[in-house]
Design brief:
This protein is α/β, with parallel strands linked by helices. The protein is 39% helix and 24% strand. The protein has 2 domains: 134 residues, D-Maltodextrin-Binding Protein, domain 2; 97 residues, D-Maltodextrin-Binding Protein, domain 2. It is built from 10 helices and 14 strands. The chain has a 5-stranded mixed sheet with strand order 6-3-7-14-8. The protein has a 5-stranded mixed sheet with strand order 11-10-12-9-13, with helices on both faces. Strands 1-2 form a two-stranded antiparallel sheet. Strand 1 and strand 2 form a beta hairpin. The longest helix is centred in the first third of the chain and has 24 residues. The chain is globular, with a radius of gyration of 22 Å. The chain binds arginine. The site of arginine (ARG) has 12 residues, from loops. GO terms for molecular function: ligand-gated monoatomic ion channel activity. Keywords: Signal. It holds the Pfam family SBP_bac_3. This is Polar amino acid transport system substrate-binding protein.
C-alpha cells in the first residue's frame, strides 16, 4: 500500500470514529419519571431571547431571571429537573427551528401567540396579556403614528410590534422610516441616543424600562392589539405541553401566579 492510500484510509477511519462520537454526544437526552422526553437529561432546556425584562433578563450576577423564568421553573419542578436557559435570536424561536433541532424543550420569550406561529409551534394556554405601546423621550411625546411622518420609528426585528407597525404604515400609507433593531436593548439604546424619535414594543417592557430609568422615557400612545403570551413546545410534544399547562393551572389556582406577577410585573390589573 502506498503512503497516499494509507493516509486516505486513516482519514476515513477518523471520520468514522468522529461520527460515532458525534452520535453519542447528540444522544444525551433523557426521559423523566412522568415519561416526558427532554433534549438534555436532568434539565428542562429553555430557549429565550435576551434581554426582555421583566420576562427574562440577567440580574447583577449574570443569572437569567424574570416572570417567564419563574413560571418555567414551576414546570421544571414538576418534572423534577432544573431549568437551563439558552439565549438565542428570536427568529429561531418563533419559527420553531430551535425546538425542531433539539436546541431546547420549551420556548419562553414573552412570545405572543399568533395564527402564523401556531402553524410551526404548539402553544401553551395564554399566561399574560399585552398590547403594543409607543415610547418617546420625555417631553418629546407624539400621540399618533401620523405625527411621525418623515421621522424614524424604531421596532424590534421579528416581533409582533414590527408586524403591527409595518401593516399600519402600509395600510395608511404613512411616510415613516421604520428601523428594525435586533433586540430590545438595541431598540432602547436607539431611542435614548436619538437615532429614532419613537419606538414600539410591548407595553410591559416599556413600563419596566421606565421603572429602571425614571424620567427619561414615557409611553406616549398605546395600540390595543389584544395580544396574549404563550410558552411553546415542538409541534406534537403533547406530554411536555400538558405539563406546562398543568403547572400554569396549578399556579393560577394556588396563588403562585399572583405572587410571581406581583414580584415581576407589579400590581395586578383588575379582572
Ligand atoms: N411579544 C412580542 C412577540 O411575540 C415580542 C417578544 C420578544 N421577546 C423577546 N424575548 N425578545 O413578537
Amino acid at each position: 500500500m502506498n503512503m497516499a492510500k494509507h493516509a486516505r484510509l486513516a482519514a476515513v477511519a477518523l471520520l468514522a470514529i468522529g461520527a460515532v462520537a458525534g452520535c453519542a454526544k447528540d444522544d444525551e437526552g433523557g426521559t423523566t419519571e412522568g415519561g416526558v422526553a427532554l433534549v438534555k437529561a436532568g434539565a428542562l432546556t429553555t430557549c429565550t431571547h435576551l434581554p426582555y425584562a421583566p420576562f427574562q433578563s440577567k440580574d447583577a450576577s449574570g443569572k437569567v431571571v424574570g416572570f417567564d423564568v419563574a413560571l418555567i421553573d414551576l414546570v421544571a419542578k414538576k418534572l423534577n429537573v432544573t431549568q437551563e436557559i439558552v439565549d438565542t435570536p428570536f427568529e429561531g424561536i418563533k419559527s420553531g427551528a430551535d425546538l425542531n433541532s433539539g436546541k431546547c424543550d420549551v420556548a419562553a420569550a414573552g412570545m405572543t401567540i399568533t395564527d402564523e406561529r401556531k402553524q410551526v409551534l404548539d402553544f401553551s394556554d395564554p399566561y399574560f396579556d399585552a398590547t403594543q405601546a409607543l415610547a418617546t423621550q420625555t417631553g418629546k411625546e407624539v400621540k399618533t403614528l401620523e405625527e411621525l411622518a418623515g421621522k424614524r420609528l424604531g421596532v424590534q426585528g421579528g416581533t409582533t410590534g414590527e408586524d403591527y407597525i409595518k401593516t399600519q404604515v402600509k395600510e395608511k400609507n404613512l411616510k415613516i422610516e421604520v428601523v428594525s433593531y435586533k433586540d430590545l436593548a438595541a431598540l432602547q439604546q436607539a431611542l435614548a441616543t436619538n437615532q429614532v424619535v419613537a419606538a414600539v414594543n410591548d407595553l410591559p417592557v416599556w413600563n419596566e424600562y421606565i421603572k429602571a430609568n425614571p424620567g427619561k422615557v414615557v409611553v406616549a400612545a398605546g395600540f390595543d392589539t389584544g395580544e396574549q403570551y404563550g410558552f411553546a413546545v415542538k409541534k406534537g410534544n403533547a406530554e411536555l405541553l400538558k405539563t406546562v399547562n398543568d403547572a400554569l393551572a396549578a399556579a393560577r389556582s394556588d396563588g403562585t401566579y399572583d405572587k410571581i406577577y406581583a414580584e415581576w410585573i407589579g400590581e395586578k390589573p383588575k379582572a
